[in-house]
């Protein structure tokens, strides 16, 4: 990993400390008054996502029954969370056994239940099944499914309980019975769990003069169509890629709108949506793409150059190779004509945007320095990555860039960042004078997660920055 500048460490630490004492609300705008988010209870017999449980876009295929005497029994963990009531009618503690991912989601849900209904606790009626009480192929046999209620057994709460389970990260939630909610997760070793993604290589963005460019050809320094804080359509500079892996295979959701847009996005990426038609863009909040269902509304860029709501008419999925997560100055961008966030894995646009503030500031400083002395920077960068200029094609689109420094002075440069990008044998390698060459998850995302694990409460942070807090 490239050495981290001391100033970057200090800035990141200050940001994390700020996050401990400030609350942030959802929404694409940053200058509006914060409003509490409304949770929409699931309807009876509704499940999220709107695919079958064993679909790859949900919890995935069953992998076989686990018994106490099988080797896979060691994959299960025992949940001793005192804030959860376990029915355990068999008196064998079977209801406490589950996969680690299921345990993590359940613990998050327990906190959400107590916050939603003070004095009420989460209750688990069924988890791992070792007595053949479920149909063949049930994820209960693998410790990947739980049936839940509230401790007061108030059936009027179960619709909202199901929505809270979706928010807690369960991969499939089903308001199955009037007397319980069924939740399940992917296998711990599932590729979809181990690595997030963002946008596919074929995702289209709009650059200068209305030209559309596939995500695979996007470079730091390009300006893409995005939404400003005031709700206007603008061009926002791509600073870098938070995640870039041209070889990684991932499952993508295909969200089709009534206007003909088809957004390809991974389930854990943030997209601005509303369950019902809202005319004000501020009413659209950042939500995981996996929670977008048919009938929901997203924001699109109309032919008149203004943002408009558009209804989702279908949700499908497919596997593709290549994941791309561009970070823009405004933290959002239009991909395939639909407004999406630059961030993922944490369902709070403001929180993620503030957390990456120091990184955006450092990139801005590096660009100012490059504008002052570009030759020195390029040569130093070339020396560090041992690049032979005669054996690489320098990528220069020739677009005019506008760079703002901290004093508000505007500097015009012609794709300074692109002069440090190189392409060889159809694979991308880009060098940044401050951060060095980077393919995969960006070092700042890893650093941010590490710092958060030290200062923040455990329930707000995942254990592996590569698996979950890749912000992609």
From TrEMBL:
Catalytic activity: glycyl-L-cysteinyl-[protein] + cholesterol + H(+) = [protein]-C-terminal glycyl cholesterol ester + N-terminal L-cysteinyl-[protein]
SMART domains: HintC, HintN
Tagged with keyword Cell inner membrane: no
A Pfam family it matches: Hint
CDD domains tied to this protein: Hint
Any Gene Ontology CC annotation: plasma membrane
Positions of Zn(2+) binding: 140, 147, 182
SUPFAM superfamilies: Hedgehog/DD-peptidase, Hedgehog/intein (Hint) domain
Residues in Hint domain copies: 196-302, 304-348
Keywords, in A-Z order: Autocatalytic cleavage, Calcium, Cell membrane, Developmental protein, Endoplasmic reticulum, Golgi apparatus, Hydrolase, Lipoprotein, Membrane, Metal-binding, Palmitate, Protease, Signal, Transferase, Zinc
Biological processes per GO annotation: cell fate specification; cell-cell signaling; central nervous system development; gliogenesis; intein-mediated protein splicing; protein autoprocessing; regulation of gene expression; smoothened signaling pathway
UniProt binding sites for Ca(2+) 2: 90, 126, 129, 131
UniProt: Ca(2+) 1 binding residues: 89-90, 95, 125-126
Signal sequence, start to end: 1-31
UniProt name for this protein: Hedgehog protein
UniProt source species: Tachysurus vachellii
